[in-house]
TrEMBL record:
Keywords, sorted A to Z: Metal-binding, Oxidoreductase
Alphabetical list of SUPFAM superfamilies matching this protein: Cupredoxins (SSF49503)
Family: Belongs to the multicopper oxidase family.
UniProt organism field: Streptomyces solicavernae
CDD domains recorded: CuRO_3_CueO_FtsP (cd13890)
Annotated Gene3D superfamilies: Cupredoxins - blue copper proteins
Source taxonomy: Bacteria, Bacillati, Actinomycetota, Actinomycetes, Kitasatosporales
Protein name per Swiss-Prot or TrEMBL: Multicopper oxidase CueO
């Protein structure tokens, strides 16, 4: 049963994505899925991996025959993947050669406030700065993206997003598929002028009906008839994805935002709101060589016309010594909570021309602290989506939290691990627990439908 049901057709005014058809001009399964290159450090001295990136405009052929101007990290779309190891710091020097402010946020990471890439802490055009990531947290499929106040929605949409895969000994000890059988699949939507290739950006646009996978439209990916670890990531501005294999066969979800789940979750559907990640293991040895298998999207914003994402082409046989253990990870016990608070998300519905979005009835104001948190506290947050038509999700900086309850019941199996972003369908309430024992200072929390955070649905917490 779909978790994201009737909204497909209903079309709440401020809701994401299309009521329309996919761009007819964009052919399906015509290009091979690019593998996102891993960036090489410029130095590995003193136990620190140092990287350099330049943010600049770059035109690329995404749709056949036309070029699309993008805002990129290093001229790449999506940005290069960073591979990091627990307890080995990473330094990234970011140079802004764009003509807009940017702030580079490492989503899901535990970092000091000065390195968090918050909304007001921007790099002006022509300037550069250095971010230091201590990587003290456990393994997790993190990602980085722009976060400049009021610009983040458009900047990310135009290409400023990439992956940052943090691993550790615990994860590497497992017999999961590795190397070429461990593949990043970053999905996002876009609205092109198909005649010129230009990316169209408008807040709340419902016509982002082209899906890109690792930057390519509806690609095919040649796989061997064996198990793969697919690192699914939703880098869309607003779109909610519900991913299924076309024959409705099982996938094994093994990880979410904050890394491995306690145990594998066998499922026909993977749910990813904007900003969420999920790793699945798919065993292609079920299929004879020659099989072509579409990955479908039956989720929010996906009417039939955007129901296809990519295609797996089973092209050869291969050896497979990988397996998925019954126990993937032992999560530390939850500490005794020391405080509780509520958070209410809402936005103007019903087609207002300039809708605003709120947390606890207030628009984001960077000069205001909305939540004072004691350092070391472990808090229960009860987060409610007060809208009746518009979905939201909820993301906190600095922490990986645990979902305690969804709608008064136990969380779904894929929510039993560590999370940094959680889905909130209209009217839903989620209880989560977060522990603030890593750093002191100010961080934001917000809806990760980026058009909504840019409309004001963001607030500040201060730990200390
Ligand atoms: Cu992925 Cu505050 O963001
Ligand atoms: Cu929202």
């Amino acid at each position: 049963v779909s978790l994201l049901p009737a909204l497909n057709a209903r079309g709440a005014s401020a809701a994401p994505a299309p009521g329309g058809a996919a761009d007819a001009a964009v052919p399906l399964f015509a290009v091979e899925m690019p593998l996102v290159p891993v960036l090489a450090p410029v130095s590995t001295a003193d136990g620190v991996d140092t990287y350099e990136m330049t943010m600049r405009t770059q035109a690329k052929e995404i749709l056949p025959g036309v070029r699309t101007e993008l805002r990129t990290f290093n001229g790449q779309f999506p940005g290069p993947t960073i591979k990091a190891r627990r307890n080995r710091p990473v330094v990234i020097r970011q140079r802004n050669e764009l003509d807009v402010d940017v702030s580079v946020h490492l989503h899901g990471a535990s970092v000091p406030p000065a390195d968090d890439g918050g909304p007001m802490d921007v790099i002006a055009p022509g300037a550069e700065r250095q971010y230091t990531y201590p990587n003290k947290q456990p393994h997790a499929p993190l990602w980085y993206h722009d976060h400049a106040h009021h610009l983040e929605a458009e900047n990310v949409y135009r290409g400023l997003h990439g992956s940052y895969l943090l691993t550790d000994d615990e994860e590497e000890a497992l017999p999961l598929p590795t190397d070429e059988y461990d593949v990043l699949i970053a999905i996002r939507d876009a609205h092109f002028d198909t005649a010129t290739g230009a990316l169209q950006y408008q807040m709340g646009d419902r016509a982002r009906t082209t899906l890109l996978v690792n930057g390519a439209p509806y690609p095919y990916f040649k796989v061997a008839a064996r198990s793969y670890r697919l690192r699914l990531a939703n880098h869309s501005n607003q779109r909610f994805l519900e991913l299924r294999l076309e024959d409705d066969s099982d996938m094994t979800q093994i990880a979410s935002d904050g890394g491995l789940l306690p145990r594998p979750h066998t499922t026909k559907a993977v749910y990813l709101t904007s900003g969420e990640r999920a790793d699945v293991v798919v065993d292609f040895s079920r299929y004879p060589v020659g099989t072509r298998l579409v990955l479908k999207n039956t989720g929010f914003g996906a009417v039939e016309d955007v129901s296809q994402v990519m295609r797996f082409d089973v092209a050869r046989t291969a050896q497979d010594n990988s397996s998925v253990p019954d126990v993937l990870r032992k999560l530390p016990p939850l500490p005794q909570p020391t405080a509780e608070r509520t958070v209410v998300l809402s936005m103007d519905e019903d087609g207002r021309p300039d809708p605003k979005a709120y947390i606890d009835g207030k628009l984001y104001d960077h000069a205001r602290v909305d939540a004072h948190i004691r350092s070391g506290a472990s808090e229960i947050w009860t987060v409610t989506n007060a809208n009746t038509k518009v979905p939201h999700n909820f993301h906190m900086h600095l922490v990986q939290f645990r979902v305690l309850e969804r709608q008064g019941a136990a969380p779904r199996p894929e929510e039993e691990g560590l999370k940094d972003t959680v889905r909130l369908m209209p009217g839903e309430t989620v209880k989560l627990q977060a522990t603030f024992d890593a750093y002191r200072g100010e961080y934001v929390y917000h809806c990760h439908m980026l058009d909504h955070s840019a409309m004001g649905m963001m607030a500040t917490m201060k730990i200390g």
